[in-house]
Design brief:
Length: about 260
């Protein structure tokens, strides 16, 4: 994998590229006018990360869009929370200001952002992502993305990205040490596909959630264990969650109430 910068790098982008290369043990090299196609040819594994002042882009194919951090729908959901409106995930998980949340499958940290805003300055969100490239990509985005809203930016900065396997992490946590444990595994039956989703799926851990992990989550959580899945999935029954379907969406949440 090659990590480089935009054609006209700044000291900031050069510094970020160097740190990212060290973190991922990747080959950092100057751009020198090379195209994405050429960089991919030189990379050895068809993976290139380009760091700019505003975002970090991950490429696997010269003719497909890169993967990069963006709060996307999470930003819309947080803006609704700012106006005093409800969010299904926050309501079902019973998330309150000051809560400690473990997001076991962070992905692009969309739900972690919603949790972080709802938990507030006194809260804590630990976002676990087992795939190093995705974890680094999202960590960079959470540190530097500017939504234009200081309180939302603060919520992003508070998220603690941790490159860990959730099974190992949960096993090491004391009993009742978090208020909420959350899972959003890759759906067994995908709802949508696109070029961008394809790049994302190539990075994430595709393993199914195990009963053993759910038991650990129940031990660690004080209030709720919650999972998001395709609304027609059999995973809710298999893992012991009570399914809650929302008419406006193809997704559903499964809830295990602890207290």
């Amino acid at each position: 994998m090659i990590i480089t910068t935009a054609p006209r790098p700044t000291p900031r982008s050069l510094e970020q590229a160097g740190k990212l290369a060290a973190e991922l043990q990747a080959d950092a090299r100057p751009r020198r006018g090379m195209s994405v196609r050429k960089l991919l040819e030189l990379s050895g594994d068809n993976r290139v990360i380009i760091v700019t002042d505003t975002e970090t882009r991950y490429y696997e194919h010269p003719e497909e869009p890169p993967l990069f951090f963006h709060p996307s729908m999470a930003f819309i959901r947080v803006k609704r929370l700012r106006k005093g409106e409800s969010d299904p995930l926050i309501g079902l998980s019973r998330c309150e200001p000051g809560d400690r949340i473990i997001d076991c499958t962070a992905g692009m940290a969309a739900d972690a952002l919603v949790f972080s805003y709802a938990a507030g300055e006194r809260g804590e969100v630990i976002a676990l992502e087992s795939e190093p490239v995705l974890c680094s990509l999202v960590r960079q985005g959470l540190r530097h993305y500017d939504t234009g809203l200081p309180d939302v930016n603060d919520a992003m900065r508070r998220i603690q990205m941790n490159c860990s396997n959730h099974a190992d992490y949960l096993a090491a946590q004391p009993d009742k040490s978090a208020d909420i444990v959350y899972f959003d595994p890759m759906f067994r039956q995908p709802i949508m596909e696109s070029a961008a989703i394809g790049a994302f799926r190539s990075l994430v851990n595709m393993d199914e959630l195990s009963l053993e992990v759910v038991e650990q989550a129940k031990r660690v959580a004080r209030k709720t264990v919650i999972m998001k899945e395709n609304g027609v999935s059999d995973e809710f029954m298999r893992l012991g969650f009570t399914r809650t379907q929302f008419n406006s969406s193809k997704i559903a949440y499964g809830v295990i109430t602890i207290d």
